[in-house]
User: Fold this.
Amino acid sequence: DQQVKQNSPSLSVQEGRISILNCDYTNSMFDYFLWYKKYPAEGPTFLISISSIKDKNEDGRFTVFLNKSAKHLSLHIVPSQPGDSAVYFCAAWAGNMLTFGGGTRLMVKP
Amino acid sequence: DVKVTQSSRYLVKRTGEKVFLECVQDMDHENMFWYRQDPGLGLRLIYFSYDVKMKEKGDIPEGYSVSREKKERFSLILESASTNQTSMYLCASTPPAGSYEQYFGPGTRLTVT
Assistant:
């Protein structure tokens, strides 16, 4: 049973608009959350993170929101750019293990 | 700048062969991880190691083993490769406790025929 789920396998957005990627989790022991971006034939690269004691973290065009009561986090990209087209993974730490979601493929159209 | 390297980008092996995937990190990181990535399933943890000669099973260890003889090197071994082990294999490392970010290598695309 997947403890971290990304229910949208793909998302298409127009350049300049907002991209919202969602992630749900079930394990209440998760205490730190991360978003990774992955291009084809490359390893994932870290994008942004948030501690479970916060509800928002912002870094430039990227903002992560955490709703602990709903066990839900989201990544907002504003404005979206064609270079943002990639697969995005959310991930969550509990103890020594990092658990990943299935990924969402974002396509930003010019 | 942290660097995690993997011995091969692409590998083709036959069913039943023994396969070694090597991973090296150059930042003296304590923890190292092996994942496989499959479409729709994300990254699934195979094994991890938090010290030399230490190893822990992840979510899907069956059919795999690991070796960590030196701190900078973590090897994944497929004792007898099977077609369902065709996948992208990713190695990652993390600094000691207090840092949450994992640094990934470029991945090895393994095809078992």
About this structure: The mean pLDDT of chain A is 95.
